[in-house]
Design goal:
This protein is an alpha/beta fold. It has 14 helices and 17 strands.
């Protein structure tokens, strides 16, 4: 590297106000992204409905706007890899593949903005993107940031394929500066930690929190329960390093919600939603919103789960317990002295009856109520020592929104909002908890 990029890096490191100054993402972002479900399908001749094209993103914007998603906070429509032409234009700018995006990105952005939504786009700081399209090398960072701003993009996912650690150390802060210099507020998602193993000392989360709004820490999610479990496990095992890094304007990103695809059962889909809410994770769906069954829709549109995820304190939750019975307990503090509890079963046999009390989970003495997020029932008359028995399905969860009785009014307001959700489904008849 020559002296100029190093000088620019030093300037970047002395201007660590980008992410916090533009006021974005005080709660985790919500929306839809193409990658997990639609990957790099560029065959618009044989697969016009599903290929990476302006039609796909218009379709998803229509669904977000018309099917009750936007009102719940799902506002970003995010393009991932494979949108670009194989060549930059004569001025050296990135350009969309004209056969698949004939109207251009600015026109697509206008379409999305007209529906009250925001547009996200993808770039990669290496020589090529992960799928071999033009990369944003150090000398292209400024022009690419200006191009995205000129198109009125609202969110950039900046990947790190085909780059080395020195280029990443220079490039990620430089892009943060370049986005800020455009004058257009853009959310900035960095994949940097995922290329460095995700943990200190290789990853400096204090620096990341100052230059990025969110960051990918770990492996890409796949459409399977094994993948979801692996992500949950990695985040929980490393929570002492990861949990303090998160907060308003700076979020750990365990990757997309795959609910409504092919790899998760109903219980496993609830488990992903519950754990992503506990982890204060971005709620970025990657599914086909045009063909979503009602059970998946009900999970993703669960207002209480969303409210827990979007809690304004922005404190990421933690795993409290790993039992020998293969039950795990997760907890997240919320406003009004409330909290969320998730009881996750890693068993593969049958529903397990788990015995506990709030006192065993470090709750103070007092009177509480608990709303079951997925069954809609409320447990009243709890105190810290009340013996609880919860029936947890294999690879499933019981998720509770717990609040002190003195904050009952605030809690009931939140719960009543959930009961007015635009889409509902019949409550499961299985007994999920009993108070003895």
């Amino acid at each position: 590297m020559g002296p100029l990029p190093v000088t620019q890096l030093l300037l970047a490191l002395t201007s660590l106000t980008v992410a916090l100054d533009n006021g974005l993402m005080r709660t985790p972002p919500m929306g839809w992204m193409a990658w997990e479900r639609f990957r790099c399908d560029i065959d618009c001749f044989d697969d016009p409905e599903n290929c990476i094209s302006e039609g796909l993103f218009r379709d998803m914007a229509d669904r977000l706007a018309e099917d009750g998603w936007k009102e719940l906070g799902y506002e970003y429509v995010i393009i991932d890899d494979c949108w670009m032409s194989r060549l930059r234009d004569e001025q050296g700018r990135l350009q969309p593949e004209p056969s698949r995006f004939p109207g251009g990105i600015a026109k697509l952005a206008s379409y999305i903005h007209d529906r009250g939504l925001k547009l996200g786009i993808y770039a990669d700081m290496g020589t090529y993107t992960c799928m071999g399209f033009p990369g944003t090398t150090l000398d292209k960072i400024e022009i690419d940031a200006q191009t995205f701003a000129s198109w009125e993009v609202d969110y950039l996912k900046f990947d790190g394929c085909n780059s080395n650690p020195v280029e990443q150390m220079l490039g990620y802060p430089l892009m943060s500066m370049a986005l800020n210099a455009t004058g257009r507020p853009m959310a900035y998602s960095c994949s940097w930690p995922a290329y460095l193993g995700g943990l200190p000392p290789s990853v400096n989360y204090s620096l990341l929190g100052d230059i990025c709004h969110l960051w990918r820490n770990y492996d890409d999610i796949q459409d399977s329960w094994d993948s979801v479990q692996g992500i949950i496990e990695w985040f929980a095992n490393n929570q002492d390093d990861l949990q303090p890094a998160a907060g308003p304007g700076r979020w750990n990103d365990p990757d997309m919600l795959i609910i409504g695809n092919f790899g998760l059962s109903l219980d496993q889909a609830r488990s992903q939603m519950a754990l992503w809410a506990i982890m204060a994770a971005p709620l970025i769906m990657s599914n086909d919103l045009r063909n979503l069954d009602n059970s998946a829709r009900a999970i993703l549109q669960n207002k209480v789960a969303i409210a827990i995820n979007q809690d304004p304190m922005g404190i990421q939750g933690r795993r409290l317990l790993q039992e020998k019975s293969h039950i795990e307990v997760y907890w997240r503090p919320l406003v009004h002295s409330a909290s969320a509890l998730v009881f996750l079963s890693r068993r593969t046999d049958m529903p397990y009856r788990y015995h506990t009390s709030l006192a065993k989970l470090n709750y103070d003495a007092g009177n509480y109520e608990a709303y079951d997020v997925f069954t809609g029932s409320t447990v009243k008359g709890l105190n810290a020592t009340t013996e609880l028995t919860l029936s947890i399905n294999p690879s499933g969860v019981v998720m509770w929104y717990v609040y002190p009785e003195q904050y009952k009014e605030e809690a009931e307001t939140l719960v009543q909002q959930h009961m007015k959700a635009p889409f509902t489904f019949h409550k499961a008849k299985a007994l999920h908890h009993t108070v003895l």
